User: What shape does this take?
Amino acid sequence: MACRSVKRAEAARTKLMGVLDRHIFQLQKKPGYDGRAHEFRKNLVVDIVSLDLAMVGTVFKFADEMTAKYPYVSRLILNAGGASFSCIDWLGAFVQIMKEPVNAITAPSYYSQHTGEISLDGLGWVWQCNLFSHYVLYRSIQHLLLASPPCIGSRVIWTSSVEASPLFFDPEDWQNKKTGHSYESTKYQIDLIATRLDHLALQRPASRRIRHFVTHPGVCSTNVSDALVGPVLNLCKLLAFYIVRLLGSPNHPIDPFKAAIAAVHMSLASLTFLTLFDKKDLNVPRAVKFGAESDRWGHERVGVTNIKNWEQNQAESDVLLGKLDALYQSFKSAEEQCSEKEWLFHCCTGFLH
Assistant: This one.
């Protein structure tokens, strides 16, 4: 488990282990329980490693730690990210709620976002945290993914959003330094990049194939918007989630645990059920993403939706992928040069002593 805050990661690990222990406790009450869950629990280890997506250097360090510790990685779930909200446009909120009430609670357009935020690495901050650092992480442990046993295979699970939108995708502002919708734009770039990576993977031999899948958690109650709303408004927001779900919205699992169903499903389900092909041409994989959904009563499920405007932006996905890889190579080269200088410094220091 990689996290910027080790303390928060430890709290999450404790909570997850508690959920698992309670589930096993219920399983052992059932007739015919064979004890496999206890065996799994005994062998389960959840390691915590520090990783700050806002600093590319920590991503390379993380990859080095993984390489030194593990012979292979079979699943990489890229679910971290962030948004840079500044305020709520209350007039815009009123207008959208009047025009499209369900969509206003699903993909709100009235959250104003900061523009021009730059990371310490000189990149668009939201873009780096949501997309580029994830790409660097994937590329940096690609050899571990390829080393996964063939019977297990390897998959990269990318996390998009119901708010991902081509409306805010500007190829000229690909690092989202100028846009006022950096969150929606970076999430749409994830749709494009992950889909293109999977299409390229399907062209390779099965033994050299790393599958890429796009998922999204639907709408769930988290602390992402805490900077904008206080406890009273947060309660109103939560109530609105339940209302639109009762009205028939499939995109509101609300509970973060239920919202994880898509990523878990894509990690565990057989590839036989995950690769979808175009009805017109069975040799062409469909551009889709798998999302967490629920019925009116909160029973979670996995839904499938098409990547928006894929045909129009397919060529642009190649261009964007080329830019990402070139930028990755430049950071990798700089990291290697820095490592060489540190090695020479330590050697010279040791010689002088």
